[in-house]
Amino acid sequence: MTKTVYVLNGPNLNLLGTREPQVYGSQTLADVEQLCTEACARHGFTLVFRQSNHEGALVDWIHEAGRLHAAGQLAGLVLNAAAYTHTSVALLDAVKGTGVPLVELHISNVHAREAFRHHSYLSGVARAVMCGFGVQGYALAIDGLAQW
Ligand SMILES: O=C1C[C@@](O)(C(=O)O)C[C@@H](O)[C@@H]1O
Fold first, then answer.
1. Is the CB of 106 within 6 Å of ligand 1?
2. CATH number belonging to domain 4-145
3. Which ipTM did the prediction report?
4. Spans of all domains in the chain
5. What is the pLDDT of residues 51-65, one digit of tens each?
6. Which of 67, 48, 42, 58 is nearest to 9 (CA)?
7. Quick one: which of 119, 57, 117 has its CA closest to 90?
8. 93 among annotated binding-site residues
9. Can you tell me the distance from the alpha carbon of 12 to that of 96, in angstroms, rounded to the nearest whole number?
10. Angle CA(37)–CA(61)–CA(98) in degrees, nearest 5?
11. In testing the pocket of ligand 1, which one of 19, 105, 110, 116 has its CB within 8 Å of the most ligand atoms?
């Protein structure tokens, strides 16, 4: 049975390519999706790739991934919650409530940036945390969860 990888992206990541390129690089979210498609193909995973600027939409999609997890059909969730990483108890509770195997991902090295980016509500419930590898981190995260 083919397992599915969820890759969920939070607020402002639709602006990748033009948003602070010195921090996030010049590749677009469509380029990131392509990287994830290729990584999933390497491992025989089905990919679900989405972005929203709305916290509740991300919560709903984590629940969706949770239903696949309960059915034994989820390989993992790669979540770049963007700014919600640093603010959202709702996303933390969604991950805890569903038990989805989580890779927390950041394009930039959040620990080398402003102090408010050093705290994550998600790290404590993540199985792995990936940050600082640029958009290549998405492919590395998928390669990593394939080893679980
Ligand atoms: O929007 C983002 C993107 C980010 O998650 C990253 O991918 O490096 C880091 C967050 O602090 C920031 O709010």
1. yes
2. 3.40.50.9100
3. 0.99
4. 4-145
5. 999 999 999 999 999
6. 58
7. 57
8. yes
9. 24
10. 110
11. 110
Look up residue 53 and give its two tokens.
Answer: 């600027």
Specify the length of the chain in residues: 148
Tell me how far CA of residue 128 lies from CA of 123, 133, 137, 145, in angstroms: 8, 14, 12, 9
Please give the Cα distance from 76 to 136 (Å, whole number). Answer: 17
Task: Give all strands (DSSP E) within 3-97, no chain letters.
Answer: 4-9, 46-51, 74-80
**Ligand 1 within 6 A of CB of 107:** yes
Q: Is the CB of 90 under 6 A from ligand 1?
A: no
Cα 45 to middle of ligand 1, angstroms: 26
**Going by CA atoms, what residue is nearest to atom 10 of ligand 1?**
82
Q: Model confidence over 16-47: pLDDT tens digits?
A: 999 999 999 999 999 999 999 999 999 999 99
